[in-house]
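Now for one record.
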Amino acid sequence: MAPGADGNLVLVFRLALRLSREHEESDDETGRSSTAVGLNGDRLHINRVRADYHDEIQRLDDLVNESFEYATRALSYLDQIQRISR
């Protein structure tokens, strides 16, 4: 496992919770960006369940990297939503 990967994974999963809350509060006018936030948030949640409840995780580094990708995408979509809402 990469140094600090477990701490980074915790941060990503906290972000997943924030993303799911922000997705629930977003307007319908933001359309696809809002849906994309939800999809990436759901994917983060699935990874969190894997990390929390499975005794062993094959390729943990891949799970961490994948989770960061989902988080990065979701943040990008949230940024788009914020710009649309202004």
Remarks:
- The chain has a mean pLDDT of 75.
- Helices lie at 5-25, 31-53, 60-85.
